[in-house]
Amino acid sequence: MTSPTDLFESFLLSDRAQSRYRERNEKRDQVRNEHLLPLLNQFLNGEITLDEFKPRNDGLNKQHPYWGFDGFNGQMHFNQMWNATPDQEDLAAHLREILPKPESRAEAAERINAHADLARTYRDNSIDAEPRYKPAMFFLSYFWHLQAPTEYPVFYVTTERYLDGS
Questions:
Q1: E strands along the chain, which residues?
Q2: What are 68-95's pLDDT values in tens digits?
């Protein structure tokens, strides 16, 4: 099996891969700047409700699948949180507090923990939905990445395997 380091080196040396990477990033930047970031800001500013934001974000991510948000750790987590909450307005307030990009790593950690704790609470108290707490890092980093892509990369759950050497 090719090691991650060897694979990355091959990627860096491949003109074809670099061209594809630049092209894809340009498309991601365009979708982020023209669609996703304005939508997120509308939600954060209270211009649209969570009931409007959630399906529109889902539709844009299905139409432009550049971040993987349409999977289990993104939209499914969002749906499970939505289905498990006893009050959508409370969930909306929670999201409006934690989705703006944090100003420090300590603040990011606090927000991840707060969201994971809420997911655990919903999981413990829900009959129909079982949101998991582990997707909190992916879920939040996706929204932070939209606001500050060079400061906050999306944390994919599979990244953890490479970080711990497994």
A1: none
A2: 888 778 898 899 889 888 899 999 999 9
Whether the CB-CB separation of 44 and 96 falls below 8 Å is answered with yes
| Residue 108: closest CA among 143, 148, 75, 140 | 140
- Phi/psi of residue 104, nearest 5 degrees: -150, 165
Q: What angle do CA 120, 43, 93 make, to 5 degrees?
A: 40
Number of H helices, E strands in the chain: 9, 0
- Yes or no: say if 85 and 91 are a contact pair by the CB < 8 Å rule: yes
d(CA 14, CA 9): 9
| Residue 135 confidence (pLDDT) | 83
Q: What is the mean pLDDT of the chain?
A: 87
The two three-digit tokens of residue 62, written as one number: 């299905």
Q: Quick one: CA torsion of 94, 150, 60, 100, rounded to 10 degrees?
A: 20
Which regions of the chain are under pLDDT 70?
1, 4, 126-133, 159-166
Residues 6+ apart with CB under 8 A from 22: none
